[in-house]
Structures are given as structure tokens and as C-alpha cells.
DNA sequence: CTTAGGG
DNA sequence: CCCTAAG
């Protein structure tokens, strides 16, 4: 039924939705507030709010036992959320639990305890398989505490929002949180409480808090002030703070048939508008751990979700709007985007769409990914949504590739259809498979270069043209090479131009004249005609030359892949210069250092 | 912007 | 070749 792990996330979402509108219709659809609070069970079974000392104690206990304490998932599963570290049972004994339930909990929970000897299947049926609870979960339950193992099922029926994964869960209810004004600990302790706290006195629901109150709560939670007036943001932050490392969904996204059908409208709007930012994406259905086959996506900056979160809220936030988009966040780098896309492509979020222009939210391994159809060289593929509003300089735009091709065709007069068609399947394959968008686009480009540009001006062409000749043809012409500039600007990437021998010679000469690293001078004085060679290019080429020259075996003929046979005398020159420059300068600098340190130490 | 270095 | 981090 739920065998397909990949569909798990989606199924889960469906379940939530159905539950909210179905069996739980008596509850307020989305915002049914449930709050938690750390309490102590007194001798008579009554609940006593925890004192600060107790909070601290609990915290210490948790830290102390963090390592060796086994995870007892069962009590956890009765909760709306689960702290990522440690188990509540570390500080609340099972007896307390039972007493807790008996004294404070009406029917259902007591029932659960009493009926815990029912067959697992029965309870599963009773819960109408609302969730595809991983088998492992039950296994663990059985191992650890056989007699409580069945509780979750029914409890889940009551509070179907739970999804536990390796001790971390995703809380799908929108405004559930603990407003106990104490940092972190409440979050940990909540797991030890019973699921339904809506009747516990003293609770506070964030949903109803004013901005000021939210700010207060924020301060109480994080120990610092905030100026944010964004309710949604505040609530999320507080929740995250309480949940600790567990990722709090920004909103309640519900996926049905790959369509976004429910949830926080703001967030949906955000998605639609393409304002989905890094954080939103991260906060989608995603878990740090993946025992259930739902792979967690590590943050691409190499931070844990927590770290990222900290980064974001620790800044001097100055949030303008309710939409929360004002959050100042590091602009994802090109590479980041590419890698992210790649990753998501790997995840297999390639879902063909009938409506090419449709933006959809698809669930991929428990993560909601908003995608859009894009036309790449004539074929439609689905790619993770990225806002079309350019925030930095153009990346190798997919559309540009199309232009690129057209231009090339124009020049080449008669592009073989077969050639194009040949490349497309390969492209599609690439996109579908591991290489991802990045590789795909590069692939296209490369092919384009090969197929259409090389014939126009090849290495041979360049070799034949004397640099001096080109020189005289006008230095203003960055490229008198046909349509190179057009192509270049269209592709957004510099056209690869093989280095000619004469260029290399000039380079070497320049290096010998002005020294290694003086690329600007070399370019100015020796490369004025070659405006397409940047200083970086010179540097790169020099690096390559050095590499080549150092690996002396290169002489033979190992460079058959068209890498141009560099005359040995040049190589020798390079090696000479490299040796003259690198080791000696090192020695020199070393000597200088010694000199300096000696003088510093009073010698000399 | 220039350099240096990693990708 | 691209991208970034440092000066």
C-alpha cells in the first residue's frame, strides 16, 4: 500500500489533508492549536508547571544521557513533535506517563493504554492506515517496550499530524507551539507530555498572540530581542527554536496528485510567485535524517538546518512585510543553484506535465519541490522552479542556449536536422539521470561548439592567421571572428578558444619579461591584440603550461586529444621560468622571513 | 579591479 | 573556462 518509499511523503501529505477534513473535521481545520508545556506530575497526579530549576535539570539530564540513552519512540509518537536529541522518557518515567494519562487524560489515551494488547493489525485498521508508518518504527517499539507499542496508532488517529523520523518529526499543524517562556527546554519537555494539551491551563497559542507578544515569546525563547513584525516569521522562529534542530515547515503544504491543493495561502502565493527562497525550500517537508528511506537534504552550504537557521535569525533582522520575503539571506550562488538543481534532478522530480506552463509542486522524497516546465532546445523538461527575476548576472540561461543554437544555425546555413535530433535524446537522458541540468546544459553547449562553431573557425584557422595579422585588423575588434561575440553574449559563457602557439609564445615571453603574476602588465604589453584573453585567462594558461611542463613525459604523444602540440622549446622555457620563479622566489621569501623573524627576535 | 587558487 | 576569496 505504501510500499513505495518515494511516494511516502506525498501519501503522508494526503493523509494529513484527508484527516483534517475528514475524521478530524470537528477540529479547526488547520489551526487547531495544540500547545505543550513542561510539567511535573505531582504525587496526586496533578500537574505542576515546571520551575526554571526543573527546566535546567531536565536539560542537564538530557545532555548527560544523550549518548547512551536508547530512543524510546513510543511516548514520542504520541506527541505532535519530537525533539531531535534524547528521549523524553529520560526525564519522565513511564510511571509518570501512566499516572499522567490516568489522571489527566480522558478516554482515548487511557483507552489506548488499556487496550494495548490488541493486535497491531487491529489498531492499524482502527487508524485506517492514516499513515504509512514505517515498519521500523513498530519494530523499534516492540523491542523497547512491547506493551506500549500500540498506543501510537490510535493516538495518531487523534492527532494525525505526527510524522516521526529518527527522533525528529515534522509538525504539520500550522500554529502548534509551546509558548512557555523558557528557552529550548519546553521543547524538549513537550514530548513527555500528552498529545492533547489544548485543555491544559496556562497554555498559550502562538496563533492568537499579538506581534508584541510574539516578540516577547521570541525573546524568551532565544534570549534576544527581535524587531520583526512579521507574525508568520516570528511564529516560525519560535517554533523552530522550540523544536530545536527539527525543521519546521513554513506552511502546511498539501499535495494531491502532484498538485498543490491546500495549505497556507501565503506560502502558496509565494511559491507561485517564485519567491521561494532557500529557506523556504529548506523548510519544506524535509528531515535531517532518513531512516525511512526519506533522504534528508543536507543544506547546500554545508550547514545543518540549525546552523542555517541561526545564521538567519542572528542577523540584525529588519523585516518589512508580512510576506516574509524581506528576509535578508545570502543570495544563492550560481554554483549553489546548479548543484541544487542537480540534486533535485537526481531525486527524480521529473514529472512530465500536460500543461507545459504549469507550475507545480511535486513531492520528491518527502520534500516539496516546485517545478516548472521549461523548453530546452525544443524539448520540454521539468526543472525546479527558479524565479525568472534575475538577481545577478545571467547564468547560462537555458533560453540563451536556444538563441545560441539559432544563431549558429544562421551562420551555418544548413544545420542537419539529424544532428539536432541526435543530441536531444542524449540531453533528455542526461537530465533524467544523474548529470542533471548543469551537465545537460554544458553538454548542449559543448556540442553546439563542436557542431556549429568549430567548422567556422577552428584551431587550424587560428593557427593559420598570424597574430600580427589579427593585430593589424584592428584592436577594437574584440573578435573579428565572425559571430563569436554574438554567440558569446548569447551563451553567457566565453567561447572556448584554443590557445595558439603564438599566444603561448607571447605569454611565455611576457612572463619572462615581467614575471609570473604580472598578468595585467603582460596582457597590456604583450596581449593588446588579444582582447579576448583576460588576465585570468593568462594566468590559467600559464598554470596549465606549468603543469604540462612539469610532467615531462608529455613530450611523447600523450596529447592526442587535440590539445595542440606545444613546441618543446616553449615547454622548456616555461619550465625554466617556472623554476626560476617558484623555488627561488620561495627561497628568497624564506630568507626574507628568516631575516624578519631574526630582526624581530633581536638578532642581526 | 587584480591575483591566486579551487572547481 | 568559471567562481570566489583576498588584497
Automatic annotation (TrEMBL):
Keywords: DNA-binding, Homeobox, Nucleus. Residues 499-546 form the Myb-like domain. It comes from Arabidopsis thaliana x Arabidopsis arenosa. It holds the Pfam family Myb_DNA-binding. InterPro entries: Homeodomain-like_sf, Myb_dom, SANT/Myb. This is Homeobox-like domain superfamily. The keyword DNA repair does not apply. It is found in: Nucleus. It comes from the Eukaryota.
Amino acid at each position: 500500500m505504501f510500499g513505495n518509499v518515494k511516494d511516502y511523503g506525498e501519501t503522508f501529505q494526503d493523509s494529513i489533508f484527508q484527516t483534517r477534513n475528514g475524521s478530524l473535521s470537528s477540529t479547526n481545520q488547520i489551526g487547531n492549536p495544540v500547545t505543550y508545556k513542561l510539567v511535573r506530575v505531582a504525587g496526586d497526579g496533578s500537574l505542576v508547571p515546571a520551575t526554571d530549576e526543573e527546566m535546567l535539570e531536565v536539560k542537564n539530564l538530557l545532555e548527560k544521557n544523550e549518548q547512551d540513552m536508547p530512543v524510546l519512540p513510543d511516548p514520542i509518537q504520541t506527541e505532535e513533535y519530537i525533539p531531535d536529541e534524547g528521549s523524553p522518557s529520560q526525564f519522565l518515567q513511564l510511571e509518570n506517563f501512566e499516572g499522567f494519562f490516568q489522571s489527566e487524560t480522558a478516554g482515548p489515551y487511557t483507552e489506548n493504554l488499556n487496550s494495548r494488547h490488541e493486535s497491531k493489525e487491529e489498531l492499524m485498521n482502527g487508524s485506517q492506515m492514516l499513515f504509512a508508518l514505517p515498519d521500523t518504527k513498530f519494530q523499534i517499539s516492540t523491542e523497547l517496550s512491547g506493551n506500549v507499542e500500540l498506543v501510537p496508532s490510535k493516538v495518531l488517529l487523534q492527532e494525525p499530524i505526527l510524522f516521526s523520523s529518527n527522533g525528529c518529526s515534522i509538525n504539520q499543524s500550522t500554529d502548534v507551539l509551546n509558548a512557555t517562556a523558557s528557552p529550548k527546554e519546553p521543547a524538549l519537555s513537550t514530548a513527555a507530555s500528552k498529545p492533547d494539551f489544548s485543555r491544559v491551563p496556562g497554555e498559550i497559542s502562538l496563533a492568537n498572540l499579538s506581534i508584541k507578544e510574539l516578540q516577547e515569546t521570541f525573546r524568551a525563547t532565544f534570549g534576544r530581542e527581535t524587531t520583526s513584525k512579521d507574525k508568520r516569521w516570528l511564529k516560525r522562529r519560535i517554533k523552530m527554536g522550540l523544536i530545536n534542530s527539527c525543521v519546521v515547515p513554513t506552511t502546511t503544504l498539501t499535495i494531491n496528485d502532484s498538485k498543490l491543493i491546500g495549505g497556507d495561502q501565503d506560502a502558496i502565493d509565494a511559491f507561485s510567485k517564485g519567491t521561494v527562497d532557500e529557506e523556504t525550500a529548506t523548510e519544506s517537508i524535509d528531515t535531517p535524517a532518513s531512516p525511512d528511506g526519506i533522504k534528508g537534504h543536507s543544506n547546500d552550504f554545508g550547514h545543518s538546518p540549525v546552523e542555517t537557521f541561526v545564521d538567519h535569525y542572528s542577523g540584525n533582522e529588519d523585516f518589512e512585510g508580512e510576506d516574509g520575503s524581506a528576509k535578508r539571506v545570502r543570495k544563492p550562488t550560481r554554483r549553489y543553484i546548479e548543484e541544487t538543481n542537480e540534486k533535485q534532478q537526481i531525486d527524480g522530480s521529473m514529472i512530465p506535465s500536460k500543461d507545459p506552463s504549469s507550475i507545480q509542486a511535486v513531492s520528491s522524497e518527502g520534500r516539496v519541490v516546485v517545478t516548472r516546465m521549461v523548453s530546452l532546445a525544443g524539448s520540454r523538461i521539468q526543472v525546479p522552479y527558479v524565479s525568472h527575476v534575475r538577481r545577478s548576472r545571467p547564468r547560462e540561461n537555458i533560453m540563451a542556449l536556444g538563441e545560441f543554437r539559432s544563431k549558429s544555425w544562421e551562420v551555418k546555413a544548413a544545420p542537419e536536422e539529424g544532428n539536432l535530433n541526435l543530441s536531444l535524446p542524449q540531453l533528455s537522458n542526461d537530465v533524467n539521470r544523474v548529470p542533471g541540468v548543469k551537465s545537460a546544459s554544458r553538454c548542449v553547449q559543448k556540442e553546439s561548439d563542436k557542431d556549429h562553431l568549430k567548422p567556422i573557425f577552428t584551431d587550424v584557422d587560428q593557427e593559420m592567421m598570424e597574430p600580427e595579422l589579427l593585430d593589424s585588423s584592428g584592436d577594437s575588434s574584440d573578435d573579428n571572428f565572425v559571430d563569436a561575440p554574438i554567440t558569446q553574449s548569447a551563451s553567457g559563457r566565453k567561447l572556448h578558444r584554443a590557445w595558439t602557439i603564438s599566444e603561448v609564445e607571447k605569454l611565455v615571453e611576457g612572463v619572462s619579461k615581467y614575471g609570473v603574476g604580472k598578468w595585467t602588465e603582460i596582457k597590456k604589453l604583450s596581449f593588446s591584440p588579444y582582447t579576448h584573453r583576460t588576465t585570468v585567462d593568462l594566468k590559467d594558461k600559464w598554470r596549465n603550461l606549468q603543469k604540462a611542463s612539469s610532467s615531462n613525459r608529455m613530450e611523447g604523444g600523450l596529447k592526442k586529444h587535440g590539445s595542440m602540440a606545444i613546441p618543446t622549446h616553449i615547454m622548456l622555457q616555461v619550465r625554466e621560468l617556472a623554476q626560476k620563479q617558484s623555488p627561488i622566489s620561495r627561497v628568497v621569501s624564506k630568507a626574507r622571513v628568516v631575516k624578519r623573524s631574526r630582526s624581530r627576535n633581536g638578532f642581526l
